[in-house]
């Protein structure tokens, strides 16, 4: 056969026609072609092989001989040349004569470079390399992910011939290199916990690829799983010896030694140059005021202190003074002036030390670490660990930390950088004489000249110059306090019809009071009185009443309910308060008080809290009586209860719980869809929980407060709000016990039962549920009775008391049915299905779960349908019907994600891992088990231990015996701590190791 003979036509290099420009091709998966959005036929496998060979030459000509060798190899058919011509002719008809050209005895495809997915992937990878070299790791990761996203399965899938086979191997190797680079970047930016799951699956698929093993060891070590990291090395060394007869490469061995030595440098990117380019440069300073006035000596003194931080020990300057004296304004101004000395960034936090809700140091450290680029997964739990990581993260950087409104030295000590080149500015109402090494600065009121200058800058020269004496009277009446001057001047600036004399006359009556309140915080009250005294009656009432609420802020709708006013009128009042600086606009439609302003507002309302009395003195005239204050707080509680009940009804259609709640005077908000209801619920979580806790402090509002917790039970399972919900639930229970209200105590114990269940404290949960049922029966309150039976059935099942569990769940089903609560009945059915499966009645268990799903489907219950599919998935796994089980569990996972039930997401990943393990898909099982560990599960440490057991079984199946045992050891510790019976199973898994020893 003459392979060199072929078409002899003139070379064609005409520009692409419009039809050609619309062509697109893929080789990173099946070989396919499109024109615009239309898929084009690519023909037989050999024709696709020809198309692939031409596409992979990037427009260069392939001779007929090269194409024949590439498609058929050393044993081509006798009519190979004719076949090539036929394939080329067919492709030209499909594509266009301008796309596939004949030249120089061969063929070429001439299209734009970005018409081929491989070319696009290569371009993205090149740009990623440039971004990484420039220090932009986030952009590099994004570009590599886009490149990897172009793969659609095996490259050149089902394309025959040696040419395709060689390129398939090359492309697969390149894909793995891209994955390794992306994972390396993941670790560099701190996403180690998230990377463990993917690396576990990849090492299972490519067990001899040492770079993946190295990345997995590093990811595990940075996730606090040192024993597993070392176990990966042991597994790798054994596998390489058995399979290849070689030792691990030197890089892997060095990493093992560094892990054994707990090398602190492993906590930071290993390839980061020195000095490292900072991924995150925080710039958190609040804006400095444009009319900053005076304080020249303080600016020079503090500026000199901050400048001295360069190349020396860490500088700390602590500013002290009464509220309203301008500490924050001065500190922010000085900090902005000092920014050139701190090129690596500035951190800022309001520590809220003047109120009774001072910021916790561990919370502040978490926020600072995030601002410095540390992902949530890498932030430890304890204060000491966070402080240590914070100091390590600041090491080598020059960062200024502004700690505003501190309570005392103890609050700020963990927040101090402690390294040369960094500095801290602290403001507080108290002198921090016990803060070792701090440069203390006492801030006094302004001088008369500075006070007048500040007043003039706000009001304007023209108005002040003509009434200089009146202006001096105004600033004197303000006690020369900057905040008081700013409030008074802002009011005057906003009223063009007023003269300075008018303002001075309005303030004249206040001078006696200011003279009497010259010391300490009492001057703060006098400052606020200047603004408060100028409010209209309706504004003053709003100011007083809204300050009663305990939440971190308040929404416009909640404020309207509390004030018992229309929405628009409420917004006008609140915006007027914002204008006078007595209220802050936290976000559109949300408002908050400064902590001292809230104390003053409560004093104005006549509240005599013990912790407030010494700060704000006696309530002024105009204070509300106890009845009006109670009514305002009751209206707020009504609003939250009514609206939360609406959300509950949308989330759980048909559930009778809403019919058993306390009646409310407020109708609650209306929602257009489930998404809007969920958005409101989770946005208001802290506010409604604060409202419930506040209401639990008095008998009058205790019942609706407990009902609010009951209706907001999803917060207990959400993960993000679980701890806060738990604290409020315990407080409500204590209050209910104190007043002796059996009905309310029974419902409170129902909420506390749920809290214990989520945390995995099953003995405590069982006791609470038992008492809740007894109290509810005595109070003729049916819902908590069958709720408690359902909970006790779950607990008995978990503890292996299956017959008792079946009896409880049977009663729960009957109680739900008697109350007309279809979702409650469906829940009992799904839980009963688990019992039947555990007792070997798998077919009945599956049938019960399917009944539950049918009931949820009938009533349109999207959230609990996820629980039903979860139960069916578990039953199908037990029955060995793994494909069906995974379908149900995947559907449940999607629904839990849509409903923001984070802990249920983790629990479902655990069950998916079990299903994959039962189906002998160990790599997939390990991947989902890792995701369950990263997210967390319902059931606390006991379920975490079960996840570790499953992960260990999967790893053992993958030949990673040492890492498997590390998982089992950790699981054994957790089970022994909780006294769980599963501990014996884990001991048996570890027994071969003990015997070998």
What does this protein structure show overall?
The chain is mainly α and 997 residues long. 61% of the residues lie in helices and 6% in strands. It has 47 helices and 14 strands. It has a five-stranded parallel beta sheet, sandwiched between helices. A three-stranded antiparallel beta sheet has the order 1-2-3. Strands 4-6-5 form a three-stranded antiparallel beta sheet. Strand 9 (400-406), helix 16 (409-412) and strand 10 form a beta-alpha-beta unit. Helix 29 (626-651) crosses helix 32 (685-695), helix 33 (702-711) packs antiparallel against helix 34 (722-739) and helix 43 (902-918) packs antiparallel against helix 44. The longest helix is centred in the first third of the chain and has 27 residues, at 162-188. The radius of gyration is 35 Å and the shape is globular.
Rounded to an integer in angstroms, the radius of gyration calculated over CA atoms is 35 Å
Write down how many β-strands occur, each being a DSSP E stretch of 2 or more residues: 14
Number of helices: 47
- The stretches of 5 or more residues where confidence is low (pLDDT under 50) are 1-18, 270-279, 510-524, 608-619
Strands of the widest sheet, in order across it, are 8-9-10-7-11
Strand content: 5-15%
Termini, distance in Å? 70 Å
Structural class: mainly alpha
What's the shape?
globular
Percent range of helical residues: 55-70%
Largest sheet geometry: 5 strands, parallel
Mean pLDDT: 84
